[in-house]
Every structure is written in C-alpha cells, then in structure tokens.
Specification:
Subcellular location: Membrane
Keywords: Membrane, Transmembrane, Transmembrane helix
Membrane topology: Multi-pass membrane protein
Structural class: mainly alpha
Helix content: 55-70%
Largest sheet: 6 strands, antiparallel
Strand order of the largest sheet: 3-2-4-5-6-7
CATH topology of the largest domain: Growth Hormone, Chain: A
CATH architecture of the largest domain: Up-down Bundle
GO cellular component, one term: membrane
Shape: elongated
Radius of gyration: 28 Å
GO molecular function: transmembrane transporter activity
Length: about 575
C-alpha cells in the first residue's frame, strides 16, 4: 500500500497532525509520572524501634532532647544506637531493628553498658519515624522496615512486571482492534487506577492496583508511539517519535517537584494522577490511523478520515481517494469485487509473536532489537534510580535526571536525520558504556565528577532508548508493527525489572551495577551496526517489504538515497 502518499498530499506535519500529536503526547506525561512515582512512595526516613512508655530524655552522641523526634534527624545507624530514659526510670538503647534495656543503670550516659537485655523489633512493636523530611509514606504507614523491608523493595519490580505484561497484551490487542480504542481505554484506566492507589488501605491492595496501573500505563505508551508514527510523515517522524520521550521526562521532573512540595504519599499520588486528567475530555475524538484502516481493508472509513484531514488542513476534500492508496493489483481486485466479478480476498491469518522470527533475517533483527530495548531500559533505570543516591538533594538529583533527557533527544534527533538510526544508536550505547567504566575509576570523594559522569551515561542511554521506539516502527510492517513495539517494550520492561536488583548488587561491590551495564552496552552497541538503515525509507506494509530493508537495490531499480533534514509542510 502507498499510504505514505497521504503525507505528500496533506503535509507531513500540518494542523491536523499537530493537534493530534500534542494531545496524544500530553497524556504520555502521566506515564513518566507513574513509572517513577514509587521513588517517593516508598521513601524510608530515619527510624528506630519504639521503647515502652513515655520518653523524658534522649541522648545520641552530642545531641540531646526530650523526644525522639528532636534527635531522629541526626540519627545514623552505623554510628550507634540512641539512649532514652522513660518516665518510670527505665533506660533503653534503641537501634533500627532492635532495642536493649539497661539493667540496673546508675547514671544516664551515652556510653553503652554490658548488663542489658536485647529484644528484636517485629510486628508486635511499633517504630518511631523522622517526619521532618518525609511526613508519610507507605513505609511509615505499614512499617515496611527490618524484616518487612523486602516488601518495599518489591514495589518497583512489581510495577515493572505489570508494565511488561501490559506492553505485550496491549500491543497485540492494538493490532487487532485498533490504536484509537486502546488509547481511550488505557488513558481512562490510568486516571481511575492512579487515584484508586491513594485510597488503598493495605499493602497488598496497593500492590494489586499499582500492577493494573502499570499495565495500562505501558499499554498507552506502547500504542501512542505507533499512533503518532502512523499520523506523521517520514520527514518529521524522527522528531515526533523522539519527543514523546520528552513528555515522559517531563513526567519525571513533575515527580521530583511534587515530591518536594508534598510529603504525604496519598496526597502526592492524587495530585500526580489528576494532572493530565483534561486529556479525558477530548481523547474520544481521536480518529483511527489510516495505516490501520487500510491494512484492515476499511476503505470507506479511510475516505472519511482523508476528507477530514483535508478540511482541517485547509485543503479541498476528495483530492485523495482511499482506492488511490492501494497498489495497482489491490485496486483492480477491489473494483472486481465491487462489480461482482470476483470474491473478496480471504482475511489474513492473525499474526503472533512467532512471526517476528519467520525467517533467519527477521529473527536476527528481532534478537538485536530486543537487546537494544533491554540495555536501554536497564541502563536508563540504573542511572535514574541511582541518581537519588549521588549525594546532595535527592529531589534536585531526580529533577536533573529528567532534565538531562531533553538535550539528549534534541541531539539524538539531529544525528538520526543526518547520519542515520543505527549510526546514532550504536555510538550512544558505546558512550554509555564508557561513562560506566569511568565512574568505576573515579575516586569516591569526587562527587561532582561522579554526578557529571552519571548524567553523561543517562544522556547517552536516553538517546538509544529514545530512538529504538521509532527504529522498531520502521523495521517492521504495519500488520505486525504494534506487536513488534509491544514485544520490544516487553524486553525493555525485563530490563526495568532487573534494574532495581542490579542496583542492589552495589552491596556486594559498589560499582558492580555500572560494570554490568557497561559491558552489555559495548556488546549490544557493536551488534546494532548490523541492523539495516531506515532513514528516509517509507513505512512498510508487508513482511516481504520489511525483510527487504537494507538490501542493495539492483542497478535497473535505481539507487535509493535517504532523505535528510526535517521539513514541516
């Protein structure tokens, strides 16, 4: 099909496409919000095991006070316990997960005594939290510390498991029922589930609702990339696809700002979940994409859409007919069917994920693309989750981790339109690997240089992570494009599930996470150079056309030259 003719006739990014694009991308902010919201939902403040009775005096090093709340902001478990005295004269040494009662004390001093009995804190005891920085989080509400700390650590991996499931499920469904329906359903569910999370009364319901929220957030993000790709011409497709990620980064920055201003987790969750709610008032006006309608043979609906685009862009309706988008053989068959001289073609069999491996050429392409998705996500979240531990203000660090993505997408877009997709992706992965190696050799006390290298790694990995969505769309045909992006996003979420556990490996060796990311980035960066270039190529509609990408054209067919630059017409 010559569906790309639509953009030659109506413009690659004129008024109709621009309105749809910015409306669809606006909701993508919510995806960035929900993906990183758990950073502050599970924030753990300073805490100690609560003693029995009322406290009258507190000692901790050189700090004294009449209550635990006065001294807790200065508490560091590695420097020893707090010593408290109760109203009945008992003295206790308080640590994070245990408390010890001094037996027959003579003086109230900070020096630890030998004669004491120790008790382990568990669900039968309460904890006292420092509310000076974090007033209320799910950790403080449900005591997710000590033996229950692993429940808090499961929050992000469980969410990303939901993202993985949603990417595969909704990517497949979008190829069957259309992009428009999925965008409407997932955006509505994002709002409903997002607000519902704030009213969960226990940990397990919280996790279930968050899992469902992850599924629909992933579903929207996967399908919106396909949606905007199929509504914009190849002259601007690089920019429109990459800047969906800019909306995601804006969501991360909103998480940092909201987390700084609101220190109560359920209010924080409600605010984040409602900030993109205006999208619900106009998403139902979205049309189906012409690529999907043509692939399903719905010519009448395609014609209505073409006339709407023409009117909205100030052009004459009817200047392009849906039948004109068919190949000559397809057009002739449509006429024969209309005149009763031929039978309609049997509907194509439903494609599955196995069709991504239909030939050796497509199988190798899929494996490499999935590897880029994996390392892009793994590196992205290792750098992001690690940003709040770089020193200094954690809110500023997370804000910078989002802000650094904006220049990466601008430079990435420029490079993709000048040197090509794979020649941008491969060097970006190699740069990310180099940054990881340099972080390992930098002295620990040089925090400024560590932050710079970490942001450089995030910058580079964001380029590869950003372009792989568009690259995947261009490497696969219309009939399986959403499934390709969905399955790639599935591998991406495998990386995001692994990322938190990779960060935990720092307990074994401080730089083990960077070493893992660096090695994988180098290997996959080299493999990326074997993929075909898609710069300037029209979107393919069949598996045969997709498989032919990158093959040299014969002399009698002429030589193909990729288009350069961006033209807004």
């Amino acid at each position: 099909m010559s569906v790309e003719r639509i953009f030659d006739e109506f413009g690659h990014f004129k008024r109709f496409q621009a309105c749809l694009y910015f409306a669809a991308v606006f909701q993508a902010i919510a995806c960035g919000i929900h993906y990183l919201a758990s950073v502050f939902l599970v924030e753990r403040p300073n805490f100690v095991c609560a003693p029995p009775g009322n406290i009258t005096d507190v000692l901790y090093g050189n700090h004294t006070g009449a209550s635990l709340e006065e001294v807790l902001p200065f508490f560091k478990p590695a420097n020893g316990p707090m010593v408290v005295r109760t109203a009945v004269g008992q003295q206790w040494e308080l640590s994070t997960c245990q408390r010890a009662q001094r037996m027959n004390p003579t003086d109230f001093t900070y020096e630890q005594v030998v004669n004491r009995t120790t008790e382990k804190c568990d669900e039968n005891y309460h904890y006292v939290y420092d509310h000076s920085e974090v007033y209320q989080s799910i950790v403080t509400d449900w005591d997710l510390v000590c033996d229950r700390e692993w429940l808090a650590k499961l929050c992000q991996p469980t969410f990303m498991t939901g993202v993985l499931v949603g990417a595969l499920v909704f990517g497949d469904i979008a190829d069957r029922v259309g992009r428009r329906r999925i965008l409407m359903i997932t955006s509505l569910c994002q709002f409903v589930f997002g607000v519902s999370v704030a009213f969960t009364g226990n940990y397990y319901l919280f996790m279930v609702i968050r899992f469902l929220l992850a599924m629909v957030s992933s579903g929207y993000l996967v399908v919106v990339f396909v949606y905007v790709t199929e509504f914009t011409g190849n002259k601007v497709r690089t920019w429109t696809s990459m800047h969906v990620h800019a909306a995601f980064a804006a969501g991360i920055m909103m998480v940092a700002i909201t987390g700084y201003l609101v220190r109560t987790w359920w209010i924080y969750q409600i605010i984040l979940s409602t900030c993109t709610s205006p999208f619900l008032f106009f998403c139902w006006k979205f049309p189906e994409t012409p690529f999907y309608l043509m692939a399903k043979g719905r010519l009448q609906e395609t014609q209505v859409l073409l006339d709407s685009i023409a009117c909205f862009n100030g052009l004459e309706p009817g200047r392009l007919r849906a039948e004109d988008l068919l190949e000559p053989k397809e057009a002739l068959l449509e006429k024969e069917v209309a005149m009763g001289r031929a039978q309609p073609v049997e509907p194509e069999r439903k494609l599955s994920i196995l069709d991504l491996f239909g030939t050796w050429r497509m199988a190798w392409r899929t494996v490499t693309v999935w590897a880029v998705w994996f390392i892009g996500s793994l590196g992205y979240y290792v750098f992001s989750l690690g940003s709040i531990n770089l020193g200094g203000n954690q809110y500023i660090n997370l804000f910078l981790a989002g802000a650094v993505e904006f220049p990466s997408y601008l430079i990435g877009c420029y490079a993709m339109d000048r040197v090509g997709r794979k020649r941008t992706c491969a060097p970006a992965l190699l740069l990310a690997g180099t940054a990881c190696v340099l972080i390992i050799v930098v002295p620990n006390d040089n925090e400024v240089l560590v932050i710079i290298l970490s942001m450089t790694g995030k910058f580079a990995i964001a380029i590869a992570f950003g372009l792989i969505y568009l690259y995947t769309c261009e490497l696969y045909p219309t009939i399986i494009r959403s499934l390709a992006v969905g399955s790639g996003s599935m591998m991406c979420r495998v990386g995001s599930i692994v990322a938190p556990f990779c960060v935990y490996l720092a307990d074994i060796w401080q730089y083990l996470p960077q070493l893992i990311v660096g090695i994988l980035a180098f290997i996959i960066g080299v493999l990326t150079l074997l993929l075909p270039e898609t710069l300037g190529e029209p979107l393919t509609s069949t598996m045969e056309e997709a498989e032919a990408l990158g093959r040299k054209t014969s002399p009698d067919q002429g030589t193909k030259y990729p288009e350069e630059g961006v033209e807004m017409n």
